[in-house]
């Protein structure tokens, strides 16, 4: 993932590592589910690295200090992964809370794109919808072909899906696809920021 290389093999390596450290449970159903032990010997604990450095100025093998005089704290880097830097306590707790709120409330707002756009189109106020226990359901007009064929909105995902109050969804036909806003919020992985690039017109 750093310093070039084959993208596909790196992605595979990342997914392999992700599976190694994923939370699994013991398969024995007779007892209460217990998490399976995970080998963490190859995991870097940056908290312990900082504690070691503060205690005696040393760092473990493979970790070094970056030349960053503009910072008032040490900046660590990994020797085998150029371009990776770790700045301990770079953000205060208040700043972390601020950006967490922004990432859930502001950043996913259209026209920014998220990992949900490819399937559900643009979703407005996802965080508020999750708090109000709303559900994203298929638009019946689109399903029944009631929108004009020459209307580009008919093929727009933003018009194929609509947010609905959760109680009313249960009374609808069971064949209608739906997903709760809280589930979408929990599965939110990324959002774009800044000017959006229109690939068809090749403009921002």
UniProtKB/TrEMBL annotation:
Molecular function terms from GO: broad specificity oxidative DNA demethylase activity; ferrous iron binding; oxidative RNA demethylase activity
Domain of life: Eukaryota
BP term (GO), one: oxidative RNA demethylation
InterPro entries: Alkb
A single GO cellular-component term on record: cytoplasm
Residues that span the membrane, as ranges: none
Protein's recorded name: Uncharacterized protein
Organism: Daucus carota subsp. sativus (Carrot)
Taxonomic path: Eukaryota, Viridiplantae, Streptophyta, Embryophyta, Tracheophyta
């Amino acid at each position: 993932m750093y310093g070039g290389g084959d993208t596909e093999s790196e992605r595979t390596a990342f997914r392999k590592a992700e599976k190694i450290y994923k939370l699994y449970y013991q398969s024995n159903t007779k007892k209460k589910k217990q998490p399976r032990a995970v080998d963490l010997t190859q995991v870097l604990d940056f908290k312990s690295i900082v504690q070691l450095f503060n205690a005696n100025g040393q760092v473990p093998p493979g970790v070094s200090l970056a030349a960053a005089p503009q910072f008032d704290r040490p900046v660590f880097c990994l020797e085998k992964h150029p371009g990776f830097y770790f700045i301990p306590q770079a953000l205060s707790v208040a700043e972390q809370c601020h950006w967490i709120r922004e990432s859930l409330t502001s950043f996913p707002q259209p026209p920014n794109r998220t990992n949900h756009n490819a399937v559900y189109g643009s979703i407005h106020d996802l965080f508020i919808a999750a708090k109000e226990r709303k559900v994203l359901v298929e638009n019946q007009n689109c399903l029944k072909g009631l929108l004009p064929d020459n209307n580009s909105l008919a093929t727009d995902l933003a018009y194929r899906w609509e947010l609905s109050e959760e109680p009313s969804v249960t009374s609808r036909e069971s064949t209608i696809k739906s997903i709760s806003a809280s589930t979408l919020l929990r599965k939110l992985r990324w959002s774009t920021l800044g000017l959006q690039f229109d690939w068809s017109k090749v403009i921002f």
